[in-house]
Amino acid sequence: MYAQKRLEVIKDFAVLEVSNEVKDLAQNYFAVIQMPEKSKVDAFHLAVAAWHRMDYLLSWNCKHIASGRVRKIVRDINDRLGVHTPTICTPEELTEV
């Protein structure tokens, strides 16, 4: 029931493309962040948000996405590659903005 309500809310959201550039960027993140293979999708979340110049990437995943260590790694990689870095935060942090 709740899952259906969430799907209804996002039905008109745009779906962002996972291009070869996004895949390459995700591989960069994955190699440096040192996350387990099963968490590789987290690197793609980061890459899609960065490549498509999202203002924010919200996540409750404080181990592989919304941690200070990962934020720094992503910013360093993006600065080196000339890629936009979104603000990575938890939903609670965003409500403080």
Main attributes?
single chain, 97 residues, mainly alpha, 5 helices, globular
User: Which stretches are poorly predicted, pLDDT < 50 over at least 5 residues?
Assistant: none
Number of alpha- plus pi-helical segments: 5
Through-space gap between termini: 31 Å
The order of strands across the largest sheet is: 1-2
Number of strands: 2
Structural class determined from secondary elements:
mainly alpha
Number of domains: 1
Description:
This protein is mainly α and 97 residues long. The chain has one domain (20-94). It is 55% helix and 6% strand. It is built from 5 helices and 2 strands, in the order H-H-H-E-H-E-H. It has helices at residues 2-10, 20-33, 40-51, 68-81, 91-94, and strands at 56-58, 87-89. It has a two-stranded parallel ribbon. The chain is globular, with a radius of gyration of 14 Å. The mean pLDDT is 92.
Briefly characterize the structure.
The chain has 97 residues and is mainly alpha-helical. It has helices spanning 2-10, 20-33, 40-51, 68-81, 91-94; strands spanning 56-58, 87-89.
List the helices and strands and how they pair.
Blueprint: H1 2-10, H2 20-33, H3 40-51, E1 56-58, H4 68-81, E2 87-89, H5 91-94
Parallel strand pairs: 1-2
Helix pairs in contact: 2-3, 2-4
